[in-house]
Amino acid sequence: MKYEATIGLETHIMQKTASKMFCACKYEYGAAPNTHVCPVCLGYPGALPVMNEKAIELCCKAGLLLGCEINPCSKWDRKNYFYPDMAKNYQITQADEPLCLGGELEVDVDGEMKTFTLERIHQEENAAKNTHVAGASLVDYNRAGTALMEIVSNPCMHSSADALAYLVALKQIMEYGGISDCNPEKGQIRSDVNVSVRPVGQEELGSKVEIKNMNSFAFIQQAIEYEIDRQTDLLEAGGAVVQETRGFDSDRGETFSQRTKENAHDYRYFPEPDLMPVKISAEQVEQWRSELPELPAQRRERYVKELSLPEYDAGVLTADKIISDYFDEIIMKADHPKLVSNLVMGKGMSWMNEIGQAEYLSIMTPAVTGEVVGLVAKKVISNNAMNELVDILVERKGGDPKAIVEEKGMAQVSNDSALEGWADEAIAANPKPVEEYKAGNTASINFLMGQVMKASRGKANPGAVMQVLKQKLDG
Fold first, then answer.
1. How far is Cα 40 from Cα 301, in angstroms, rounded to an integer?
2. Are 137 and 128 in contact (CB under 8 A)?
3. 185-to-59, 145, 214, 246, 252 alpha-carbon distances in Å
4. Which residues pair with 10 in a beta bridge?
5. Coil, helix or strand for 240?
6. CA–CA distance from 280 to each of 100, 125, 287 (Å)?
7. What angle do CA 464, 466, 468 make, to 5 degrees?
């Protein structure tokens, strides 16, 4: 019997707000534990929450970016559970009336365009961070109460490739929209992964297993693949899949049982009595809509249609918003898209991997990079010399590109007399390729050109060299 998997994702994203969701405490990643806390986020009796307006705006903008309907009236609920990461013993969230309804995300999965639909996006508060050490568990409440939104997909994916493409696209959109930095290492994007398996053709979904709190896309892929295989093996052996919550052991590449899965009624949801409903006017929604930025797909299309970049270049450049913004700034100064793309994707990304993106961008600013590209465009230096120039600038942590070109003697030679001398030497020293060229094998000229470039130590202008050689050989 053949089986098919069904996958849904609940993705939690920390929003870029100056303060927490229901109090004025700020959140600072890496701050000393329990230093950004107050009676509200510590759940002291009598402390009252106050809504963060910016978080509401960011959640709704995220919904608009994903094609959601903005709920004109949503409300707050208490999700009750006892665990050290929630001092109040309940979480303020949205159960049945979320801010955003529906929505979809169109993504490229291995060359095939697929549309994955959303159920909802709701606003809530984050939990604290638990750290488990030998013989104890430590709790840092700095993160407790930070603004967190949950993007819930429908069970509409069927492979780990689907899930990865969905998450990558979602992360890019949230970054481009200014909703979140989505840094997995800082816990700013985490997903609960729901996986079920059923016989092909069966309408009813199989028993769902939830793999909790995963912040690595690679581990999510591994966990999905392992869980599909585990459930399939169980069913083929005549067993049954138990609805439960599982964790993922990244060292062993396996999921493991944690507890029997709770249902909604286990959390005893009830309306939050300390907060009023959120009412959003159509005028406010349209105002937010007018403020939405250019998205990755739109930017890729612009790069291809307006800048004539290959689709591959457009895809690489827009994969990271910081890189894409950097590229756009350079284009405003240099106006040579393909040259800029070659530099950024080649030598630029190589150095970013070596010294870090932030340091590279602080050295090779858009102005400096634009000047380097301009030297190539004006044929002052060759492409090889451009790469050497970038190396020198990075190693020196800055400098004047033109001064370095002069200092190192990197300028291309276009002087006719010098080129003719090198060409004459190459022709005299290599009679065989000369004969082959004159006999009709035009590719032989490339060997002669290589000899000229060697004699000039790479300084000769390739286009001028080719022109001089052709004049001499065809004359």
1. 46
2. no
3. 22, 19, 11, 21, 21
4. 152, 192
5. coil
6. 11, 20, 11
7. 70
Q: 46 to each of 22, 258, 269, 414, how far by Cα in Å?
A: 14, 35, 20, 81
Strand, coil or helix: what is 381? coil
70-109 pLDDT, tens digit each: 999 999 999 998 888 999 999 999 999 999 999 999 999 9
- Token pair belonging to 162: 């689907």
Amino acid letter, 378: K
Tokens 């062993």 correspond to what residue?
A: 252
Q: Which two tokens stand for residue 325?
A: 């913004």
DSSP symbols for 384-427: HHHHHHHHHHHHTT---HHHHHHHHT-PPB--HHHHHHHHHHHH
Type of residue numbered 304: V
d(C-alpha 43, C-alpha 271), whole Å: 17
Q: Closest by alpha carbon to 155, among 187, 203, 122?
A: 203
- The residues, ordered by sequence, that sit 6+ positions from 74 with a Cβ below 8 Å of its Cβ are 94, 97, 98, 99, 122, 277, 278, 280
Cα–Cα distance, 402 to 386 (Å, whole number)? 11
- How many whole angstroms separate alpha carbon 382 and alpha carbon 311? 25
Rg over alpha carbons for the chain, rounded to the nearest Å, is 30
Average the pLDDT over 127-138 and give the result. Answer: 91
Burial class, 306, CB count within 10 angstroms (exposed 0-12 / middle 13-18 / buried 19+): exposed
Residue percentage of the chain with pLDDT more than 90:
78
Task: Say what the alpha-carbon torsion angle 419, 423, 424, 425 is, to the nearest 10 degrees.
Answer: 110
On whether the CB atoms of residues 114 and 106 are closer than 8 A, the answer is yes
- Domains (range + CATH), the chain: 3-284 (no CATH), 294-408 (no CATH), 416-474 (1.10.10.410)
* Model pLDDT, residue 263: 64
CB-CB neighbours of 63 under 10 Å: 27
Q: How far apart are CA 16 and CA 54, in angstroms?
A: 9
